[in-house]
C-alpha cells in the first residue's frame, strides 16, 4: 500500500469538512451516507469515526470522506489533525472500509424504491438521472456531498441530499435556484424538485 496523503477542504456547510485522499475508496458514482452510527453498520471505518464524540455524520465517496461535526463551538483547526491522522493510519493499515459492497447495496435500494412508473415517467426519470449524474453530482461532490435521484411522479422530482449538503445553510437555495431551474429547463415535464435529507 502506497503512502496515503490527505488534505482537508472546507465545504459550504460550516459544520462539514471534506477529507480528500490520494486513494480510491469507492467506484466513481458510488457513495454512502451515514447520518447515524446505526446506519453505518456496513462500514467499520465510519463506525470508528463515530467513536469521536464530535462526529455526527459520515459521508464517503470516490476519494474523500466528509465528516459533519455535532458541536458548532468546536473549531475545525482543533479537529482536522486528529481526523486526518486517524484516516491516514486506518487506510495505510488496510483497515476494512465496508463489509458489503456499497455499489450492490445502492442498486438494491434503487430497485426497491423505483416502484412501477409508467413508460412515460420511466423515460422522464432516466433523463433526470442522466442530468443529475452529468451536471449536478460533480459540482455537489466538490462541496463534499452528493445528490441522488429518489423518484419522479406527476411532475415532482424527489432527490436525496447527502453528506455536507444535508445540513448546509445554502442547500435549499441550491436546490430551488440551481437544480430545479436546470431540470425544468432541460426536462419540460418537471414542475418542482423536493429533497429529503435537508436538516434545518
Automatic annotation (TrEMBL):
<dbReference type="InterPro" id="IPR035433">
    <property type="entry name" value="NFU1-like"/>
</dbReference>
<feature type="domain" description="Scaffold protein Nfu/NifU N-terminal">
    <location>
        <begin position="6"/>
        <end position="94"/>
    </location>
</feature>
<dbReference type="InterPro" id="IPR036498">
    <property type="entry name" value="Nfu/NifU_N_sf"/>
</dbReference>
<dbReference type="GO" id="GO:0051536">
    <property type="term" value="F:iron-sulfur cluster binding"/>
</dbReference>
<dbReference type="Pfam" id="PF01106">
    <property type="entry name" value="NifU"/>
</dbReference>
<protein>
    <submittedName>
        <fullName>Thioredoxin</fullName>
    </submittedName>
</protein>
<dbReference type="InterPro" id="IPR034904">
    <property type="entry name" value="FSCA_dom_sf"/>
</dbReference>
<dbReference type="GO" id="GO:0016226">
    <property type="term" value="P:iron-sulfur cluster assembly"/>
</dbReference>
<comment type="similarity">
    <text>Belongs to the NifU family.</text>
</comment>
<dbReference type="InterPro" id="IPR001075">
    <property type="entry name" value="NIF_FeS_clus_asmbl_NifU_C"/>
</dbReference>
<dbReference type="InterPro" id="IPR014824">
    <property type="entry name" value="Nfu/NifU_N"/>
</dbReference>
<dbReference type="Pfam" id="PF08712">
    <property type="entry name" value="Nfu_N"/>
</dbReference>
<dbReference type="GO" id="GO:0005506">
    <property type="term" value="F:iron ion binding"/>
</dbReference>
